Amino acid sequence: MKYTPWFIRAIVILLIIIVALTSCNKDKDENKITIGEVTRSVFYAPEYVAVAQGFFEEQGLEVDIQTTAGGDKTMAALLAGSVDIALVGAETSIYVYQQGAEDPVINFAQLTQTDGTFLFARNPDGEFNWDQLKQSTFLGQRKGGMPQMAGEFTLKKHGIDPQNDLELIQNVDFANIASAFASGTGDYVQLFEPQASIFEKEGRGKVVASFGTESGHLPYTVFMTKQSYINDNKAIVQKFTNGLHKAQAWVDSHTAEEIAEVIKPYFKDIDPAILVSSVNRYKEQGTYATDPIIDEDEWNNLLDVMSAAGELKQRVDSQTIVDNSYAEQAASTK
Fold it and tell me: Which of 9, 142, 258, 291 could cross-link 254 (Cys pair, CB 3.0–4.6 Å)?
């Protein structure tokens, strides 16, 4: 099976840039943690709740969140040491491991357990059927990223060959996908919230299906860090995971309206009603993990999705780059 090396090439280039920019800043307070998140999204609501509700602060941690747009940039920042912990798709840790990294990236706490994208139709026609996508133009996500792989996995499950049964567009940067669709590109598009709700309100079409529901549970976005960081900061990693789990329990037990109110400072330009509907859509389909443990079934489903996309060199045992000890400890603490 052919493996696409774009991800590693991008990381090498970005590493050179990041190391140059950060080489002069070596001093660090061990209780300060910098998170690099792959994007700013309602999809990551428990992360913002953990900060806003003081759950990390209760653990004696000062947490700073930086948005490092794109999986390659986020991983490069982690490997270069400009962030301590990355919030990104678990597939990125597999790509790095398969390149023989001496200091592997370890997944230690899961945030979301489903895909976060929705199938958005420009001209929905009656009751939706997946066959409607055949011969259409589909504005997808970047090749090798989890949104695109989960999308292709779902299409194949419904008997659609992404390469032959539709016109698949994959050359639009993540940040420009919504604007490309708004300008007229594609009959269907794969969108995260709140963009899907915004487009519905603007009358650009409607959500007709959920890739999260269709592709099943998997460690879609995970907090991960280098093995060397864990070795040197075991107590910090545990405290971080404890705070995260408390936020997960809070999100699970509160309404979309209450969650939206707490995370509102992170989405100042979003209509409060849109924020509520976006959170509710994710809560209804069980997107937010209720504990940080990455279980074996979820991991194997991730490998199946990657294999179906032709992006997996070989199956990687979860115990190789997953350390659930911190998550299990956090989940056992009331």
Answer: 258
